[in-house]
Amino acid sequence: MTYFYQNGWILFLLSEGITWLCIFVFLVFRYIYQLNRLSHLFLHTILLCTFFQAMLAGINYYYTGKVSFFQVLIILFILYGSTLGTSHFKNLDKFIQQRLSKNRHIRTSSDNDHRIDTDNYPTLFFMHTLFFIAIHWFWFSYDFYGHDQLANISFQQIPMWIESPHNGFFSNPLFNIISYIWYIIYLFDLTIFVLNTILRSIMIVSKKKINP
After folding, report:
1. More confident residue, 24 or 100
2. How many C-beta atoms lie closer than 10 Å to residue 158's C-beta?
3. Using one digit for the tens of pLDDT, what is the confidence trace for 139-179?
4. Which residues neighbour 105 within 8 Å (Cβ) at sequence distance 6 or greater?
5. Where are the transmembrane segments (predicted)?
6. What is the spatial distance between Cα 158 and Cα 164, in angstroms, rounded to a whole number?
7. Which whole-number Å values give the CA distances from 126 to 83, 121, 123, 189, 192, in the listed order?
8. What is the pTM of this model?
9. Residue 120, Cβ neighbours under 10 Å: how many?
10. By C-alpha distance, which of 113, 49, 47 is closest to 86?
């Protein structure tokens, strides 16, 4: 267990790289070689990588005895993979099927649902952004210590804040922990928003090429 704790970041990045490699190989075997049964082997590998990452987070907490950036990041990756990540993967799978299908002009109800869901995501993200800013503005206005900390913030303090979430910009440790987790969630949501925007752009360009 000591080895997994000391090399947690390397093992996490390695498992995440294997996950994306398995996704790529899955698509190749499924659509180029038409080996559907063999392609499912890589899906099982992705699940094993997910369980391995959860184990790394558990080992890290066992040795440190406190919540860390490493643990929160892994939990967010797992949550994304089991919720939005699954949905995005299915949409990608469906998109490739449509590109390879001869009946490109036929739209199904599931396609319409995907379009509606994709169009609503930017609105939800901007609502999250406004709520995020408003709550933190209220906290900084309420917590004068936090206001002073914000004025004297330096880049050297950021690594310390990452390692010790309770020692943040507020005098209230609960505010610091909530803000810490929320910052990570927001950055994760921002990443999903950017990837979703890129995916939408690719799909729009592809549809224009198919149906000029």
Report:
1. 24
2. 10
3. 777 775 555 555 555 555 555 555 565 566 677 777 777 78
4. 211
5. 6-29, 41-63, 69-89, 121-140, 180-199
6. 10
7. 20, 9, 5, 10, 13
8. 0.56
9. 10
10. 47
